Every structure is written in C-alpha cells, then in structure tokens.
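Exercise 7. Given the components listed, write out the predicted structure of the assembled complex. Treat all entries as one system.
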Amino acid sequence: MDERRLDRRGGGLPDDLGPALRRAVEGVLRDPPPEGLTARALAAARQVESSHSTAARPALGRHRRATWWGVAVAASIGVAAALALWHWDGWLPKPVAVQPAPVGSGNVEPAPHNPETMPDGRRPSLWAYRQAARQSEEALDEALDRDARQVLAPGSQVPESWLQPASVGQML
Amino acid sequence: MVDWNALIDEYGPMVVRVSWRILGRGADVEDNVQEVFFEAFRLHQRETIRQWGGLLRRLATLGALARLRRRRRESSLGAITEPARENPPEAGVIAGELEARLRAAVAILPEREGAVFSLRCFEGLELPDIAATLGIRYGAAATALSRARAKLEAVFTEIAVEDP
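Answer.
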C-alpha cells in the first residue's frame, strides 16, 4: 500500500450518501486543524522516545525491589533459624567460668590461670558437661574432677572431700 | 534503526489530520497523537514494522474512535445522538452542530464500522486500502461500511438541512 498515494487522495466521498450525512461529512473535511495544533502535537510526539525509556524504568525498579525483598526475607529466615538452634540445643559453646578451688590450710597453692581457660588451654563448657551428664553420672563426675584437678597446681593433691561428693549430678 | 524524528515528520501530519477529523477537539487530538506514537514506538521495539503509514493510520483511527466513545460516555453527548426525535432541528442547522452530531453518531457505532466509515469518508480510502489498513478482509470492510452508512443515514434523514 502506497502511503503517499493515499495521502494525496484528499478524500473522495461515496456518491450514495444522503444529503444531510454528506453535508456533515463535508463539514468535517472542510474544517482544518486549528493554528499550531499540528506543531504542538508533533512536538509532544517527539518526546515519546525519551518518555518511553523513562516509563520502562519503574519496571526495572520494581524488579530490583523484589530482589531486595527476597534477600531480606532469606536473611531473616536464616537469622531466625540460627537463633532457634542456639536457644533449644545450645550448640554454641558457652564458656564456663571455673573459679579456683578454695584454698584450705595453706598446703595448696592455686596455680596461676586464666579463669576462662584450663591450664592446658582447653575451655570447659556447659555443653561438655551436658554431654557427659547424658552418658552417665560417672562421666559427668569424671569431667568435673578432671577440670578441677587441672585448676590446681601440678602435683598437688585434691582434697578427698572434693573428689567424692555424694553425686555431682545432684549438685547441679 | 528508525529515525524517529524523520518518521514523525513524514507521518505526523497524517496522524494529526486523522485524529482531528474524528475528534474535532484540539486537546484530544494532542493526546491521541502522543498515544499513537507511544504505541508505535512500543510495537517497534517488539517487532519489525514494514508499513509505518498503515500502522500509524490504523492506530490513529482506532485510538481516536476509542477516545470519542470515552468522551461521549463522560459527557452528555448522548442527547446529541438522537436530535431528530427530541429536538426537531430548525431549518438552518449550523455546520458545526452537524459535525458534532456526526461525531457523536460515529461514537456509538461498533469499532470496526466506525473505523471503516472514518477511513472511507474522512480519509477517502478505497475499500481494498481500508481492509489492508485495518487488517481485515475486503468483504468484512464492505459489510462494515454498508452497516455504518445505514445507521448514520437513519440518524441524519430526519434532520432537515436546507441546501445552501
């Protein structure tokens, strides 16, 4: 279809239009666009290219917002899961401050130590005691005794009363 | 790559003219022209346009008719569509009123009939060109034109118009 040919036609009315309808159509064809209308309309049309690319940006913004929402939700779920594990199972090691044994009649010198670590560098933990308690009371007693011995100076004797409580488990 | 400004220079006046003849109101024409080129640009990004003139003419016609229908719903132009029964016209109906009645009557036609009538009577296209522009068959275009003309004649036969 040749568009230039169509534009040159200028409009030919069908012959069989009634007089009133013909006159109305002729009135429409006679009436030109107001002064400046074409220029204004075409100026607005020239902005379409830039406004179209601008209109595309909100879609990209929505996509990015959705991505960030996804990341935020995933992070929240991860943090909640970590807190739940920590709360219920105590999987994070909890340092236990082991106080030096009370010095009795002066025959035992407490070894210098860091209250948070054993002399061999191991960190006693509530978790370790709980594990031992799950095995047996004897295992727990043994763990406590072992840690207590290490607090004392090498070669010193632990008072008998410390090593033979009725039940350390009952004490806890 | 399409030179957008060259495209507007070549086809813009045609789009303005089509919109003006259907709408007859400057503000609506400006809006329609902008929408036509916006839609054309969007289509151009999705697919290759081979007939820019045909596409723009179709978009301008259908867009203007849709806008004309919206305008009729929003305003009280309904009273104008049946002037003969409610308000028998005086002998000297002014031309502007006739045009307004024609536009109001075209607004109530089905979309295809309105488009075919506008392209035939306002743009002077022949039926094969109308069918190609609207992407319909020749027979469908002929049928739509016949129905549109019959409906519009029914509206205008009761209007007494004195020959100048």
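Discussion: Residues 77-92 of chain B have pLDDT under 50 and may be disordered. Chain B is about 75% helix and 0% strand.
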